[in-house]
Amino acid sequence: xxxxxxxxxxxxxxxxxxxxxxxxxxxxxxxxxxxxxxxxxxxxxxxxxxxxxxxxxxxxxxxxxxxxxxxxxxxxxxxxxxxxxxxxxxxxxxxxxxxxxxxxxxxxxxxxxxxxxxxxxxxxxxxxxxxxxxxxxxxxxxxxxxxxxxxxxxxxxxxxxxxxxxxxxxxxxxxxxxxxxxxxxxxxxxxxxxxxxxxxxxxxxxxxxxxxxxxxxxxxxxxxxxxxxxxxxxxxxxxxxxxxxxxxxxxxxxxxxxxxxxxxxxxxxxxxxxxxxxxxxxxxxxxxxxxxxxxxxxxxxxxxxxxxxxxxxxxxxxxxxxxxxxxxxxxxxxxxxxxxxxxxxxxxxxxxxxxxxxxxxxxxxxxxxxxxxxxxxxxxxxxxxxxxxxxxxxxxxxxxxxxxxxxxxxxxxxxxxxxxxxxxxxxxxxxxxxxxxxxxxxxxxxxxxxxxxxxxxxxxxxxxxxxxxxxxxxxxxxxxxxxxxxxxxxxxxxxxxxxxxxxxxxxxxxxxxxxxxxxxxxxxxxxxxxxxxxxxx
Length: 537
Ligand code: PEP
Ligand code: MG
Prior knowledge:
CATH superfamily of the largest domain: Phosphoenolpyruvate-binding domains
Radius of gyration: 25 Å
Shape: globular
CATH architecture of the largest domain: Alpha-Beta Barrel
CATH topology of the largest domain: TIM Barrel
Number of helices: 21
Bound molecules: phosphoenolpyruvate, magnesium ion
Number of strands: 17
């Protein structure tokens, strides 16, 4: 048995699909002859064409017409005689086939990414796919299209970036296993949102497990059983059945308020990463959105989303929730969330560096685009704006000043908008320690225990070696939480919690006692959290 961390509940039984993320590095490839390199290139193009044609046929069968069209577009692009002849010219100039394919594709990518037209920009990302496929074929890297794995697959990878996770088709994935990442890593958060059992931080998983191996994964304990016998499989299939049954019993809390035995009503909201997740919140009886992590809108693309695109996403959530509260967090990038096109400089200590509100305040245009989109979306529902990683009162003031500029601009342009209350995340010791002062500037608080625990304990949340110290029950973290809730209460502003600890049944009684107003949790934990609150005195 392999032991990791249980990061997303449930049991998965299926076959391993190893996701190889070998870097596409061709620096060691030796030039043969011009004809030799051209022959390699032709073979790669031929293989690419064959593979793509097969994928198109398969997709058409499974009714994925739209995706099939995209792939047909890939074929047409690569059949462009200019593209191939340009690659061959580079080979004549002394480039190995890999370098030739890379350089020519990059030239097209640069050309298409700079243009205004969205359709043309989409071509840049198509050519990126073509480039990566050609390089993989040339280098013999065995790659797996995550979105197309067969039903009953258990994905095994070193790590899942948010963009890899977002390509998962949850119907076909029985479980996820990774070598790194903890309970609060973003892959864990997304796995829970998709209700896929996950065992993370399983040492050497991609080496010990072989492609095609049968596996049983326990997402509660983080255990992985390679090549299980029939009785073990039957045992875990029964456990999965019971787990699903218990989950169904929670459905009774769907439209019940979270009311403690003494009659105090709390709000239970859901955390989301993209507009479509709102469905998940509603299906799980969520009473609002306590955290919309907008950075996911900025990922997996080549340029920042426009004001219009952002407005559409925020407004869709606001409309779907109607009168219910929607707390949208401004861009929280940096740290572990890199975005290539924002060219965030490499830093010695990215978690202590130029991230979140700090980055946004220094990139006014980017920030204003988001704030304008938020103000406009506020006119479509009950939107609140939340600032991440705040450490000083001045940061709140600066963001509010910028918001005032945006309001004046929108007013002048005659665009409909509504003012939205501005609150902050309390996720640094600094913010907790001055939460009494922050409460004078902020309309509400939301405690981000994921970061608050890390920063208070000076522990990297993804580092398995110090994971014992990453503990929300450490007295220092509990004091920071209690202090924040009490300071909010004294100032008369609402206080919520959107870190993972908000769903921790061991912590909920204390949070209720201290006076936390709102619990924002992974959509799949909403019903259980309601039940846990109802069980409190
Ligand atoms: C937190 O830090 O608790 C939080 C909710 O923010 P994120 O997990 O996105 O950093
Ligand atoms: Mg955080």
